[in-house]
Amino acid sequence: MAIPIAVLDCDLLLYGRGHRTLDRFKLEDVTDEYLVSTYGFPRRFIYYLVELLGASLSRPTQRSRAISPETQILAALGFYTSGSFQTRMGDAIGISQASMSRCVANVTEALVERASQFIHFPEDEATVQSLKDDFYGLAGMPGVLGVVDCTHVAIKAPNAEDLSYVNRKGLHSLNCLMVCDARGVLLSAETHWPGSLPDCVVLQRAALTSHFETELHKDGWLLGDSSFFLRTWLMTPLHIPETPAEYRYNMAHSATHNVIERTFRTIRSRFRCLDGSKGTLQYSPEKSSHIILACCVLHNISLEHGLDVWSSPATGHMEQPEEEYEQMESMDSEACRIRQELLLTHFS
Predict the structure, then answer these.
(1) DDE Tnp4 domain location, by residue (predicted)?
(2) How do residues 326-339 score in pLDDT, each as one tens digit?
């Protein structure tokens, strides 16, 4: 079967003449509409990524040095937003399918290296107060520092013997623990947990728990659903509300916590490699975890640039395993006291 000369030339560049750069595709030669429809983002956003990641993507030690940072970023965005290595996409930017795969690996690594720069809790007092004010404006729930939940992303089976990634639906997945603010900006993202772990176990083992239990957060808390246990820093809904105050508390809790569900839908809508519509991520758990985290970083950067897709139509995605909650009263008496005080002070 004949191989297109363009692809052969690109691979020769990749392997044999590493000091040259590939410049077949020029951003200025196409419209914003084309870039958004093919790569998911407008020109100014792509230029920002080139500036942000350019140094990392030009490292002499990387095999794809001959491919420009701009082309590597386009290849990665094309995969993240479409979920497949389409031949026509590689042809458009002048690289082979194998080269596209290496570009995705390079860009993913560069984004993961910068995760802490874009995904973190605010530290200064004014920003923390603004965070609480934004949440309070949603449904009148005070003191909220973030909403937390887990979501599953389907991956290929690591091997026949490893059942740790098999979730309750019998599918292989990663269980990703995330926290976001009232706008859907991610404040924490742990994307590496095996799909067999229940949400409450993921939280128990997570760095997030260590952070909130070692740091003093006396004036605020996260909101979590009934898959988590009540803690001094994590307010959960009441299992069986009885009084008007308890009903009001649960309604405010649900309306506020819904932000994280919308955020999950937003991420899956923008990054179709995560929604299962093109199949599972065909990588090891570690590489899949990095791809998910890279998409989380891009999600935050896109919100920072005013690219909000909450109004986008919902897309198909992997059915989330249903947790079988053990509805138990928390053994943490201090946490129970804090929730009761919250009820009396703000919902009675």
Answers:
(1) 148-300
(2) 544 567 899 999 99
Q: What are the DSSP calls for 34-85, one per residue?
A: HHHHHHSS-HHHHHHHHHHHHHHHT-TTSGGGGB-HHHHHHHHHHHHHHSS-
Q: Mean pLDDT, to the nearest integer, of 182-186?
A: 97
Instruction: Return the structure tokens found at 311.
Output: 């109004």
- Find the domain containing 196 and state its range: 119-284+328-347
Of 25-29, 162-166, 309-313, 318-322, where does the model show the most confidence?
A: 162-166
- Whether 10 is in a domain gets the answer no
Position 126 scores a pLDDT of: 94
Give the chain's domain count.
Answer: 2
- Report the alpha-carbon distance of residue 227 to residue 211 in Å, rounded: 20
Give the pLDDT score at 10.
40
Residue 123 makes CB contacts below 8 A (sequence gap 6+) with none
- Whether 167 and 274 map to the same domain: the answer is yes
Instruction: Calculate the alpha carbon distances from 310 to 259, 267, 299, 315 in Å.
Output: 10, 9, 12, 12
